[in-house]
Amino acid sequence: MLDPSTSDLPLAGPPRPSAIYWPGIRALPEGVERYVVEGGGSVSVAIEAGDEISVVDREGGQACEIVAANGGGKPDTAAVLGHKADSPAEGLKAILVGEGFSATRTRAALKARGIDLGEAQAIRVFGSTSRPGDKAEFTAVQAGTLVVAAPGGRMDFDAQDTVTPIELFIKRSVLRLTPEAQLPDPLADPLQDIRIDASTAAAYTVKAGEYIQIIDVSGRQCTDFQAFSIPKLEAGRELPLDATITRALLGLANPIPGIPAKAFDLEMDPLIETIQDTCGRHDAFLTACNSRYYDDMGYPGHVNCTDNFNAVLDPHGIQGRKGWEALNYFYNTRVDEQNQIYFDEPWSRPGDYILLRAVTDLVCVSSACPCDIDAANGWNPTDIHIRTYSEKELFSKAVAFRMTPDADPQMTKETGFHSSFAKHTADFTEYNGYWLPNRFNNDGPTAEYWACREKAVVMDLSPLRKFEVTGPDAENLLQYCMTRNIRKLSPGQVVYTAMCYEHGGMIDDGTVYRLDQDNFRWVGGNDVSGLWLREQAEKLGLKAWVRSSTDQMHNIAVQGPNSREILKKIIWTSPNRTPLEDLEWFRFTVGRIGDFHGVPVVVSRTGYSGELGYEVFCHPRDAEAVFDAVWEAGEEFGLSPLGLEALDMVRVEAGLIFAGYEFSDQTDPFEAGIGFTVPLKSKDEEFIGREALIRRKAHPSRKLVGLEIASNEPVGNGDCIHIGRPQIGEVTSSMRSPSLKKNIALARIDVAHAELGTEVEIGKLDGHIKRLPATVVPFPHYDPEKKRPRS
Q: Which helix (H) or strand (E) holds 565?
């Protein structure tokens, strides 16, 4: 054994802390608060003398109006901020007469403080020439109320004058609240405000229809929830919420906003309904922590949720238990492939919440879990906060969507076409931050599929991300960031392209529209692609703006053999625009519905179905009128609505790829089956990922192929593919093709086994004890020469 007293080796230094990055929690200096003013929205905040205020034009080109009122409620921007205010606050006033959440929230805040903005003057900063990241700074001279607006109307499709967010930062002169004490603003006027201190629990009652908001105050804190029907308690029947019954009835691990939202008791009667969720990771498998758990871990006598429940439920006459079944909100618990239940730190951030609605009168109990011996609460138990709201309030069903890990949560929205599609179905599912129809009444996905192949369908594609790319360097930016040769595009043309990282992995696929010499529109699947473009423009010092227009342009797709006949009845174009009936594949035109005075639209001959088809873009406020016109024109041609289930069928059959299935940031365009988007020979300019793609094309390891499956059993994404014992690939997407009358799939397999005609086996169960025979075939399976969309 080495004697440390005689060794020449250096002694180890003091221990170093674990190196952990927390991209999911925004790291702001102490005393600094951040607010996001949505494009076309406003924010009001109380300020004190000495507070340092910064407003930032996040995307560039966005005007900002700043108004301040003194402590008495009188608008006096110059006095409060010590800065001349000589611009009428017309943009802010226009926002406040609207009906959106932002307008409602700001009106309520101003009313509570007795502020009338009738004659208010604003400081106006930024505008069409401001650069991304431009900043304006002020210091409050006296206490008051600050109102910041990002004004703008509906986007002109030619001018591309979209509205984008403004960031507001306030560095407090006096630290107002510790992070642990801060709470998000109430969703409405609360009926009850209940603070549950760390390692304790509280019982409370709510009436049928009332709402329960359970808030993680500091982040990464778990809370157990249980509820009892008061009518049943009064009848002497103690039937708590039952997680096992709930899972079985929903077919889900836990309730989520939408259709599978309720939780049930042992008699299968619903007790609560999940309305909103900003976290998205909870547990319904384990009991609340109990004394036995801590005893067995070597911590006898440790405070626990079960004992805390027993204590606060006793006054309600509810019998104590040794272990309470519960819905365990913010718990990060899962079952792995070895059938082991595991847990890790919660996903919840400070202020994350779940909003429930009571189905009947309830006695409820919630805990602030005391576990400090493992990662369940991030090793540091903190508080939980409960708010309840009147049954008269209206809260939409929503889950949180975050553009990036540190972004503020955006709750699920309804597209401009939602009300039109809702006339035909109540089956909506969350997709990319929006509610989209899954399937439609009376027909279902198979009938919708045939309507697309034989007649015509209309579908909602509004969640596609749109970015306006403008400026004298816009072409250079896109040429450098896209794999296709953007310089070949003429105004009115569209090109399908990939966007890659330096290592060749894909960021996104999508389409670039050229509106004019220095005006482009990028339409992709995710927000990251727009952020990436903006980052590259900043890094290269290019004079190009990349501004989000997703909320300014919603779109439906009209697809199928009759789509041209439908749209040419209603799309009017000026003489200097291509008429709808003359529009070729991957071209677009600007027109109006009906005539010169109609609703403005952009129509492109593009789609995601493998059929002749078009996409129709409009402002959300015009969406209902656009849908009605399309629907009326399509009646004689058998037009039907198409949901996500049928959309997946037609796109798989047509060999159209989907993010997270056929590609990811570990997949290059060649492996994703879209190598045609990388013209390495004809594009003689550098672009991001070029060198990596040259290398990966010369030395491929995997290839996307088609499979015909000699079995009618379902196959799913991720199913393993074998030749003999070794796995040689995996299924990316699959469907039972009504027209081909067989199961087909897209799959990524090793190039050594990608030859057409190769016999493979798809593994089910554990991958070995059950196999489905399949054969490698060309793809697309349907219309491989693309004659139908070109027709």
A: helix 563-567
Gap between the Cα atoms of 780 and 791, Å rounded: 17
Q: Are strands 434-437 and 413-414 parallel, antiparallel or unpaired?
A: parallel
Give the separation between CA 283 and CA 294, rounded to whole angstroms: 19
Q: How many Cβ atoms sit within 10 Å of the Cβ of residue 442?
A: 7
Alpha-helix runs per DSSP H in 504-548: 527-540
- The backbone torsions φ and ψ at residue 206, rounded to the nearest 5 degrees and listed phi first, read -140, 155
**Res. 178: pLDDT tops 70:** no
Indicate if the pLDDT at residue 4 is higher than 60: no
Maximum CA extent, the chain = 95
Q: Look at phi and psi of residue 648 and say left if phi exceeds 0, alpha if psi is from -120 to 50, else beta.
A: alpha
Residue 179 has a pLDDT of: 46
pLDDT at 20 over 90: no
Alpha-carbon torsion angle 163, 352, 55, 432, nearest 10: -20
Backbone dihedral angles phi then psi of residue 149, each to the nearest 5 degrees:
-125, 150
Q: Where are the beta strands (DSSP E) in 324-397?
A: 327-329, 332-335, 341-344, 353-358, 362-367, 384-389
Q: Strands, E, within 554-599: which ranges?
A: 554-559, 571-572, 588-593
What does the buried/exposed string (b/e) look like for 467-477 if buried means 16 or more CB atoms within 10 Å of the residue's CB? bbbbbebbbbb
CA angle at 424 for the pair 421 and 430, rounded to the nearest 5°: 50
Q: Is 246 helix (H, G, I), strand (E, B) or coil?
A: helix
What does the block give as tokens for 585? 């594949």
Reported pTM: 0.92
Residue whose pair of structure tokens reads 């056929």 in the numeric block: 662
How many alpha carbons lie under 13 Å from residue 671 in its C-beta half-sphere? 29
* Euclidean distance between CA atoms 648 and 656, whole angstroms: 9
State mean pLDDT over 295-299.
Answer: 95
Q: Are 560 and 454 contacting, i.e. CB atoms less than 8 angstroms apart?
A: yes
- Give the type of residue at 209: G
- Alpha helix (H) ranges present in 568-688? 623-634, 644-653
Six token digits for residue 327: 């819905």
d(CA 616, CA 725): 49
Strands 362-367 and 201-206: antiparallel
